[in-house]
């Protein structure tokens, strides 16, 4: 085939406790990728159509090009490609756009050249387009649903990804923040290099283990009880004002209030500064935005931040599923 179209969902990483290991695929926005073979050249061309302008220095589609270059070289394919990316409003920053770009390019190339990859293979190849080859966002764009990343398995030393259907009862809303963080995601990672106290480690492991068991078994009330209790990345970043003009004590106070009054797990979405509300759809069948806006929006406004809350649908499929359904991959 000379031309392939793939759709890849957006994503939200970390999901509270699961720093670099949990990620959710999101139904909207979606990224459309059209891959066209260029057999008479070796260059990879980029073209992008989006109503949103990327920040200075960001080239839309670059992550896909970077991952694809390595993939084609690895498979001894000496052809070029034209990568066309299109979206109806996919922001740069906060929803894993670069991960979706990379997944779309790898998945399209695999279909084009009839290279059989499993889901793990797609995640690993796509992560080469990401800084530090982080796999959480690319896993969610590959699989949709909930992905859990094991960075290195004990026997092979290779990463692996498990994915699970998300219980219908889990609702999600994202708060898009006006705060402009400095230093980007990598600067946020530097904050996390300080030592971890053994008691914090044990508490975090206990919460992650119990919360994982809760979500995969459909016990959403238990998941919501635990998911907002992170003791690792969120407190450290909040302490240095990475999410805005508030510290970890302020932020924890908001989290506690939202859980006590509404049974909502409020966390940072990805590396921030966007926020995430997880809730029970059985308890709030019409969504949570109208219920919590009178509490949440003034809190952020008092910090000089405008927050736009939107209901988000969790994706039930990813780019791999799209290839299976449309190309019998």
Output the keywords:
2 domains; 10 strands; alpha+beta; six-stranded mixed sheet; Ribosomal Protein S5, domain 2; globular; four-stranded antiparallel sheet; 38% helix; Alpha-Beta Plaits; 329 residues; 11 helices
Number of strands: 10
**Average predicted confidence as pLDDT:** 94
Pairing-aware structural class of the strands and helices?
Answer: alpha+beta
Number of helices: 11
Describe the structure.
With 329 residues, this protein is α+β, with helices and mostly antiparallel strands. The protein has two domains: 3-165 and 317-327, Ribosomal Protein S5, domain 2; 170-312, Alpha-Beta Plaits (2-Layer Sandwich), CATH 3.30.70. Helix content is 38%, strand content 23%. It contains eleven helices and ten strands. The strands form two sheets. Strands 1, 2, 3, 4, 5 and 6 form a six-stranded mixed beta sheet that branches. A four-stranded antiparallel beta sheet has the order 8-9-7-10, sandwiched between helices. Strand 3, helix 1 (62-74) and strand 4 form a beta-alpha-beta unit. The longest helix is centred in the middle third of the chain and has 19 residues, at 198-216. The two termini are 13 Å apart. The relative contact order is 0.17. The mean pLDDT is 94.
In short:
By secondary structure, the chain is an alpha+beta fold.
What is the fold's blueprint, element by element?
Blueprint (H helix, E strand, L loop, with lengths): L2 E11 L8 E17 L5 E6 L12 H13 L5 E7 L10 H16 L6 H9 L8 H8 L2 E5 L9 E5 L5 E8 L6 H7 L7 H19 L3 H8 L5 H7 L8 H15 L2 E4 L6 E6 L8 H13 L5 E6 L6 H9 L2
Parallel strand pairs: 3-4
Antiparallel strand pairs: 1-2, 2-4, 2-5, 5-6, 7-9, 7-10, 8-9
Helix pairs in contact: 1-2, 2-3, 2-4, 2-11, 3-4, 6-7, 8-9
């Amino acid at each position: 085939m000379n031309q392939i179209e793939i759709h890849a969902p957006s994503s939200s990483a970390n999901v509270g406790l699961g720093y670099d290991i949990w990620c959710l695929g999101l139904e909207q926005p979606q990224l459309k990728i059209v891959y066209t073979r260029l057999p008479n050249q070796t260059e990879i061309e980029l073209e992008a159509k989006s109503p949103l302008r990327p920040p200075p220095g960001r080239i839309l589609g670059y992550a896909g090009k970077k991952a694809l270059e390595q993939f084609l070289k690895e498979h001894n394919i000496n052809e070029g490609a034209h990568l066309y990316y299109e979206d109806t409003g996919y922001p740069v920053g906060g929803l894993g756009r670069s991960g979706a770009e990379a997944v779309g390019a790898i998945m399209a190339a695999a279909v084009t050249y009839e290279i059989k990859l499993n889901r793990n293979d797609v995640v690993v190849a796509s992560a080469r387009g990401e800084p530090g080859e982080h796999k959480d966002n690319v896993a969610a764009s590959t699989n949709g649903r909930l992905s859990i990343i094991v960075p290195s398995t004990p026997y092979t030393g290779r990463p692996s990804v498990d994915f699970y259907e998300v219980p219908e009862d889990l609702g999600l809303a994202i708060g898009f923040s006006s705060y402009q963080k400095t230093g980007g995601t990598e600067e946020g990672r530097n904050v996390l290099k300080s030592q971890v106290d053994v008691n914090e480690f044990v508490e975090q492991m206990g919460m992650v283990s119990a919360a994982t068991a809760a979500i995969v078994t459909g016990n959403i009330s238990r998941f919501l009880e635990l998911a907002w209790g992170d003791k690792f990345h969120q407190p450290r970043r909040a302490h240095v004002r990475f999410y805005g003009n508030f510290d970890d004590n302020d932020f924890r106070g908001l989290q506690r209030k939202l859980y006590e009054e509404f049974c909502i797990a409020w966390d940072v979405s990805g590396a921030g500064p966007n926020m995430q509300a997880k809730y029970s759809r059985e308890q709030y069948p019409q969504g949570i935005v109208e219920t919590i806006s009178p509490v949440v929006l003034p809190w952020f406004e008092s910090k000089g931040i405008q927050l736009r809350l939107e209901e988000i649908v969790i994706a039930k499929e990813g780019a791999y599923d799209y290839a299976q359904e449309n190309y019998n991959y």
